[in-house]
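May I ask for a protein sequence together with how it folds?
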Amino acid sequence: MLRLFVFAPALFALAGCAAPGVAEAPTAAPAPAAAPRPEAPEMTFDEWRAGFLPRAVAAGVAPGVAQRALAGARPIPRVLELDAFQPEFTRPIWEYLDSAVSAARIANGREKLAAHGAALARIEAAYGVEREVVLAVWGLESAYGANRGSMPVIDSLATLAWEGRRRDFAEEQLLAALRILEAGETTQDRLVGSWAGAMGHTQFIPTSYADYAVDFDRDGRRNVWGEAPEDALASTANYLARFGWTRGQPWGVEARLPAGFDFALADQTARPVSEWRALGVTAADGGALPDHGPAGLLLPAGAGGPVFALYGNFDVIRRYNNATSYALAIGHLSDRIAGGAPFLADWPRGEPPLSRTETVEMQERLTALGHDTKGADGVIGPLTRSAIRDFQRARGLPPDGYASARLLTALRQAGG
């Protein structure tokens, strides 16, 4: 779930938890709409609070609950600092995976599997999500419960609703947090989490808690905050199941491409495995590519790195966090906890990713050469990758869509 308040389809990113560089929470269907909110002018926190309280009541929150919860709320400057932070440099995916799927995290996951085996078996039986996958989410989101966050959720979300980059979304989460208090699920002093309002062992944002949290231990509360992790782990399994998890289907497998393969096909578009086999795609060890339904190909580091065939469950993981790197980490960590091996192919560790400034330059040069990226924002999305492929084809380069220092050098030489 990345330590930025970043938004993408089905993504709410947060900070302060265990995932190395990224710790994000799942998103859910919107909470019931509040009364229309006016355009946000310059205002003090007290002025924002005075305006928010009637909107909370109009959205169905009991007046006394809203007043008591907000009475002592104070803005947290650190929350605004983290919300505004946009790093110039990003970590290469291999460094992220080195940390996300470290030897310690694998070993700790296996220890937790032994310690909570009975509960995890019941959760798997109830929701059809493999226990190792649930453990992997727990491991990345909070280091198996060690780093669940300690910031007051009401204060954090109020700060973001007042001055954050996505005020309406933060206000929606704040309304959901107030409903948690109104329902008696927990008390305000225990309602703590990340700086962006994600809570508990597996870092649910309030709207996701409302829609997917479960009382698995049947004590009358959906307690994702306490020391016992069963409710949080079952809630995560329920979330994945509700978005279509298929038991027995891997998230993906490492694959191998034949010589002369058209890298433009590695765009994650799902195709029958029979088509990939006919094109010469195999498992990484040279065996037949497993058929677990339609699969798409992913080259997260371009033609010079590992290749993965992705099945439907990979997309389900991305509903929990839309970052491809996160979903890859969850899948690989779950495999390693279950006894699986490291990836066979090497990463191109000698070629770091582009900085944000370099990415903007790359986008500007691509557009100048007629490969329109529809803007230069320093973020590599589908339009930028498509433009990269177009340029690579025009220059006789492998059209893998990978933004690298080598690509930027070629663009500079081309005069874009």
Remarks:
- The longest strand covers residues 252-256.
